[in-house]
Amino acid sequence: MKTLRCENPGEMVYGEAEIPKPGKGESLLKIRKVGICGTDIHAFSGNQPFFAYPRILGHEIAADYIAGDAEGIQVGDKVTVIPYLTKGLDIASRLGRPNCATDMQVLGVHIDGAMAEYIVVPSHAVCTSKGLSYDELVLVEPIAIGAHAIQRAGLIPSEYTLVIGAGPIGLGIISLAHIAGAKVIAMDMDDSRLAQARKLGASHTINPKEKDVTTTLSEITNGDMPTLLFDATGNTTAINSAFQYMAHGARYILVGLQKDEIHFSHPEFHKREGTLMSSRNALAKDFEYVMDRFEEKSLQSGYFITRRVNFADAASLFTDPDRPLLKGIKTIIEFN
């Protein structure tokens, strides 16, 4: 089978390997589509935390079920995969939070992922399609990250919700927050992404290059400021700046990840009785929730996928000096 491996930062290499054979508790999948996400781009650039080279990237998966012992799944079924693998014995798993397990191994990050024609995964990580298309299945994982963040936040219908960053993860949060009844405010420096945010339910958008953010938020919220904030940028400046946008009693959820320390005024945060939390990966129930939203058509794949590339041409997207992967919303690798 053909593989595409990130050999070192800045270096993508095609290779050949034997088709893996599933053992007990494992399943063999034929990859149909893989989404390229920020983790893959950061790994290629050399600035992804908790990463080692060489590595086959890819953890946003749509595939056909070929063989194995996954319960309730038949050969030929369309499937996706929960790519966060753990033995399930650590403290987080025992608390029902395997998404942040101490022994976490993420496909395409800690172990080889899905930029290959076939992959073997634990059978319990395989999710049935519920009749979804490959386009929908490949989007389940990134949107499930937003679903998990919203669940962590305890979103209240009609509350003003600021989503900072309108990339794939941010747009997923925007769409699901709108479905849940929030008054969504989207902020990004890319007007085309803000236009997409409006299509997905954002009632207000802010480009910080054009408007004073604090003043604009105050006007939108009648002086209250947002009671729920999500960072989906992974940008240190954006993360630090957002503390000043919090209403008194607000919750601030960090979904994006970066390497540096964050800084904020403790007195200002304290007087607000603010809540700060992180949101990492997603749970099986978040995958189920997103698949249900696709099934009922309240989520539409066409709003997220903006570029398609054949597997044979995928390496060139990473190495192109014009950096096309930073443009548009979601690029999908397709396997013939």
TrEMBL record:
Keywords annotated in UniProt: Oxidoreductase
UniProt cross-references to SUPFAM superfamilies, sorted A to Z: GroES-like (SSF50129), NAD(P)-binding Rossmann-fold domains (SSF51735)
Highest rank taxon of the organism: Bacteria
Annotated Alcohol dehydrogenase-like C-terminal domain residues: 168-295
CDD domains the record matches: Zn_ADH7
A Pfam family reported for this protein in Swiss-Prot or TrEMBL: ADH_zinc_N
Keyword Oxidoreductase: yes
Residue ranges annotated for the Alcohol dehydrogenase-like N-terminal domain, each copy included: 23-127
Name of the molecule in the record: 2-desacetyl-2-hydroxyethyl bacteriochlorophyllide A dehydrogenase
Originating species: Sphingobacterium lactis
Lineage: Bacteria, Pseudomonadati, Bacteroidota, Sphingobacteriia, Sphingobacteriales
